[in-house]
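Q: Here's a chain of 178 amino acids. Please give me its 3D structure as tokens.
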Amino acid sequence: MAKRLFLLHVGPETVDLSAMTEVLELGGVTVPDVDADVLAHAEVEILRTHKARGLRRKEVEGAWARVCRRAWKARSDCFVSMPGFVGATPEQAALALDGLADFTVVLVVTSGFTAAPPVAWTALVKDERIHLLPAHLADDQLAAQVARIALMEEEARLDRRLAKVGKRRRKVGRRLAA
């Protein structure tokens, strides 16, 4: 069975996930059923900025795992926006990706074409799964781009599957001819 996609938005600007759900559904993408507070705590947990935010570690511990579990329970491709992850260190990025081991991670970066994507993330995600988008996209525009990316990934997966089936079909044909 193919792994589901986890489309992780990393960019300096926040987005309104509730405004994006309708457009994301066109690409078969859902948003995990978590509160905005849980997403904020997950960002604080991964970036280890709880003291700067006036929180105790105990208050934010497990928030990223909760987001990952909710994404897994959604049983479809998921989209999560974590704008603060753009400044993550390689260790923090690796920690975030550890929770997504059951997914195929697709990185969506909205830092624009003038700035390079964050090196901490590009070193951990395959090049063909990193998508750089223009900065300052409206929420519906970003949702349309994310849905397009999800459909492109699905098309590539189906092409690979079709190639495998074609090879097996030729093998069977040769066996029947012999």
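Q: Can you summarize the key feature?
A: The chain has a mean pLDDT of 89.
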